[in-house]
Amino acid sequence: MSSLERRTALLRARTRATVNTADRSWPGRLAGDLRELDAGWRESAEVCADAAWTARATGHSVLGLLSPDRVTDGSLDPLTARSLRHLYLSALRYDFRCSSIQALVEQLPQPARRDLDCYSRALYAFALLGRSRPEGLDLMDEVLDEAGTHAKTLHVLLHGLWLGQDLDQGASRLLALSARPPFDTGTDPIVLFRRAGALRRLGRYAEALAAIDTAMELLPPGDIGVHADLVRERSLITAVQDLHQHEHTRPCCAKGVSA
Length: 259
Description:
The chain has 259 residues and is mainly α. The protein has helices at residues 3-18, 26-36, 41-57, 68-71, 78-94, 98-106, 110-114, 118-130, 135-147, 151-163, 170-178, 189-201, 205-218, 224-249. Helix 1 packs antiparallel against helix 2, helix 8 packs antiparallel against helix 9 and helix 12 (189-201) packs antiparallel against helix 13 (205-218). The radius of gyration is 21 Å and the shape is globular. The N and C termini lie far apart (82 Å).
């Protein structure tokens, strides 16, 4: 199968899964299609993350179709187990359920957890980073060594750094990650959104505003939910900037005023 034929087959599998997300059988059907294609972890991550997002957007989250016991079932063949894990953990990530991701990964059978693929480990790192757990940074570095320029994996790690407000040097690590390939082109609106938040946390307000304004220009039309997130970030940047300027311009004390 040529690379074009393979991309077409993967696209067909994703389309077949998401054409009717109300059909409760689609996660298993997608896992079967990916098993037939002998999909690698990168291919599985790309198809499953997009399918989980589409299902959530249409009101049929994977979380209502699969159970944790099904995802951690040790009797599943490795490719099916990986597909269901990618679907379920991605859905948990989209709902910011860091504790649930951590608990599910730690409940996996020992052989599965020992051989966890790179994308699943990225999702585990997201959960730790999102809870500001410092061990998440060590796991992130391990994932980066294997992930290379795989955008889906790097987005998961960026999301965790963005969410983990109390991570030591978390904002600086986010900026460094957002500047490496394939994000170094500066054309991904989600990456720019994450950068804007990190710059705000570092007090670099002018750069934060420039990043969020560029993100708004690059965001595809019609993505209402993400646009609302960008607007909220811009409002937060300007509010914090105004507060900062006010604190540095007001008089230190008022003479001759009684309490």
